[in-house]
Write a structure and sequence with these properties.
Low-confidence stretches: none
Oligomer: single chain
Shape: elongated
Number of helices: 3
Number of strands: 0
Mean pLDDT: 83
Structural class: mainly alpha
Radius of gyration: 30 Å
Distance between the termini: 87 Å
Strand content: under 5%
């Protein structure tokens, strides 16, 4: 149905609300409601009215600002991911080198122990 109206479906990673622009919009709306009603004693009909007003007041510029912020954050995550991946590969190679030198050392220790038995 969405494709019929030329909407693009965008899957977001779970547990990463900071990569979802609507979370920032909801935060803006909730902040506006708190500013109007700091004591939280508003009746439901007024709350609905004020919420609808806050939603309608949200500009395209605000949406674009939050979307740009999310894109920057995503790029930072990708950069950090690449750094972490590179570090992990380096660590794996380092550990593999250590295992090889440990095996050589263990062999030398075995030979030394056999020589000591011969001297007894």
């Amino acid at each position: 149905m969405l494709q019929e109206y030329s909407f693009k479906i965008l899957r977001l990673p779970p547990y990463h609300c900071d990569l979802n622009a609507i979370e920032y919009i909801w935060s803006d709306i909730k902040r506006q409601i708190r500013n109007i009603n700091p004591t939280a004693d508003m009746d439901m009909s007024k709350l609905l009215r004020e919420t609808e007003h806050a939603i309608n007041k949200t500009s395209n510029d605000r949406w674009q600002s939050h979307c740009k912020h999310v894109k920057k954050l995503e790029l930072k995550y990708w950069e950090k991911d690449a750094i972490i991946e590179e570090m992990c590969e380096s660590l794996q190679m380092s550990l593999m080198d250590d295992e090889e030198s440990d095996t050589e050392y263990d062999g030398e220790a075995t030979i030394s122990a056999e020589n000591e038995d011969d001297n007894i």
